[in-house]
Amino acid sequence: MSASLDIRLKRANKVYHEGEVLAGVVAIVSKEAVQHQGITLTMEGIVNLQLSSKSVGVFEAFYNSVKPIQLITSNIEVVKQGKVPGGKTEIPFEFPLHTKGNKVLYETYHGVFVNIQYTLRCDMKRSLLAKDLSKTCEFMVHCLPQKAKLQPTPVDFTITPETLQNVRERSLLPKFLIRGHLDATNCVITKPLTGELVVESSDVAIKSIELQLVRVETCGCAEGYARDATEIQNIQIAEGDVCHSLPIPIYMVFPRLFTCPTLETINFKVGEFTCNKYKSNSATVCGLPMADRCDSLFLCRV
């Protein structure tokens, strides 16, 4: 006798804010009646932290002092012990998104070393001869918009052989000059990163110009903090030997699950993002593209 269990939220996008009500139904489908020992729903919000492999051993106290941080937890009994009739049964539920004490619901974020996740789990306990049923559903929490108006802070940048980072043989680099600007470094997370780039001169033909978005995650404890940067996405903004002195638009949409408004707590920090401009050409040193780092970006919600 097979039965399936599912959680269906009323909102198709599964996005909620603190103070709202998380509502939906538990759907049970079975050809025959199902005997059970009770059906429960558990809502949980947790921050999971971990160190990169290069930091293991440096902060040994980290694993003992920093456990998963619980932001919110709630449990309700949907149905008491009994029997669910055959066919399709939908049981409605509601969970208020309220924290206890001075805790705050951070925005959903899926990182490499910091992960902020909110889940709903439904469990149906059954007899020893039948397997328990369980279903987990993730939902997203977004911060409420800021009331204060955000003032854009434009930044100009210049890329030359002298400004490049992580270059061993700088003398072998071809001569080039690239100028541009970003419209803001304090960015609204729901709006794209925009700007402009101009190739003033280049001794060799350009093959491609790419824009890389990098996140910097910091986590640790009283012993110290580990700071690691990982790539989120890389987009191409120009292909081929572009015309010199011709403005090239910069337009990048922030991927929502992998970025979040800038957040800093005692045990971790996320939301410091960096843009790198990559330029590859026929005279690339050591087979690697040449990169120049822009100022850090700080994201918020307005």
TrEMBL record:
A Pfam family reported for this protein in Swiss-Prot or TrEMBL: Vps26
GO biological process, one term: intracellular protein transport
InterPro entries linked to this entry: Arrestin-like_C, Vps26-related
Keywords: Endosome
Gene Ontology cellular component annotations, sorted alphabetically: endosome
Superkingdom of source: Eukaryota
Cell compartments where the protein resides: Endosome
Protein family membership: Belongs to the VPS26 family.
Subunit description: Component of the commander complex that is essential for endosomal recycling of transmembrane cargos; the commander complex is composed of the CCC subcomplex and the retriever subcomplex. Component of the heterotrimeric retriever complex consisting of VPS26C, VPS29 and VPS35L; within the complex interacts with VPS35L. Interacts with SNX17 (via C-terminus); the interaction is direct and associates SNX17 with the retriever complex. Interacts with SNX31; the interaction is direct.
Role according to the record: Component of the commander complex that is essential for endosomal recycling of transmembrane cargos; the commander complex is composed of the CCC subcomplex and the retriever subcomplex. Component of the retriever complex, which is a heterotrimeric complex related to retromer cargo-selective complex (CSC) and essential for retromer-independent retrieval and recycling of numerous cargos such as integrin alpha-5/beta-1 (ITGA5:ITGB1). The recruitment of the retriever complex to the endosomal membrane involves CCC and WASH complexes.
Name of the protein this chain belongs to: Vacuolar protein sorting-associated protein 26C
Organism: Oncorhynchus kisutch
Biological classification of the source: Eukaryota, Metazoa, Chordata, Craniata, Vertebrata
Gene designation: VPS26C
